[in-house]
Amino acid sequence: MIPASKKRNLPRRNAERPGSMRVFEYWCEPIPDASGNLPQQLWDAAHEMQAVWNRMTEAFREVTAPHAEDYKARRAAVQALDLKRIRAVAMQSRGVIPSRYYYHLADRFALTLKGYQRRQRERGAGPSHGAPRFKGRLESLAIPEIFSRCVGDEVRWSQLFTGELPVRMRRMSRAGEARGEFRVSHGGVNAAVRLKVRLHREPAPNAIVKRVTLCGRYERSLGAHLAGWRWGLKFLIHEEDDSHYLREETGVVMKK
């Protein structure tokens, strides 16, 4: 562990390290409490994050509405809506949810604006093609847990099973099954969401965990009798070069 006084002199990113960034997604199922409900902080945080997204969308429409017929002026207005201003709009209700939630939403919104600008360059694209949309009914959520980026203070995959982090995992006796705990916060109150997780094709034990996101989506396309929330855990992983560790044998014989 590197002392906090020396971390300021270390690089914040691992661009110089060999390896690649990958996303591992695992199906999960929340475990209700004794009353049969999930923690209220989960839903409150999701509603607040949706309200933040709608505020940023409103700011986008305010700067683009006067230039609906002028592509160049509309493009300049979107470029002026930089990440710093987006974050300022997102942080208007700072303190309701943790800062990392606001920054996560601002980064996602900035990526949406980049996609909007790409769509606008296509032939026949209208002013609203690719534009961010207002969200009404809560039908999806994505709550992140972002770990430290300082070199020497990374969180490894194996550390998630030690029980000392905001995201905790515990293997079960049956292969591929695990129990997890994901902490959410709203209004300064933390709550633990207990999860059943199906692990498959895990990353290397020494892989660096950058971000863990609890994702949920309300599915209606399966019919009224099967409609409900579907859940997953997404892990943003930095895997080091294959030469740094040996993979397990799979037993598959490759024919020439």
Primary descriptors:
256 residues; alpha+beta; eight-stranded antiparallel beta sheet; 5 helices; 27% helix; 28% strand
What this model shows, in words?
With 256 residues, the chain is α+β, with helices and mostly antiparallel strands. The chain is 27% helix and 28% strand. The chain has one domain (13-243). It has helices at 4-7, 40-64, 71-80, 83-90, 99-120, and strands at residues 19-30, 140-146, 155-156, 167-171, 177-186, 189-198, 208-219, 228-240. The longest helix has 25 residues, at 40-64. It is globular, with a radius of gyration of 21 Å.
Q: Average pLDDT, to the nearest integer?
A: 84
Beta-strand fraction estimate: 25-35%
Structural class assignment: alpha+beta
Q: Gyration radius, to the nearest Å?
A: 21 Å
| Structural shape | globular
The ordered H/E elements are: HEHHHHEEEEEEE
Total separate domains: 1
How much helical structure, as a percent, in the residues?
25-40%
What is the β-strand count? Answer: 8
- What is the helix tally? 5
Query: First CA to last CA: what distance?
Result: 48 Å
Low-pLDDT runs? 5-16, 243-256
| Largest β-sheet summary | 8 strands, antiparallel
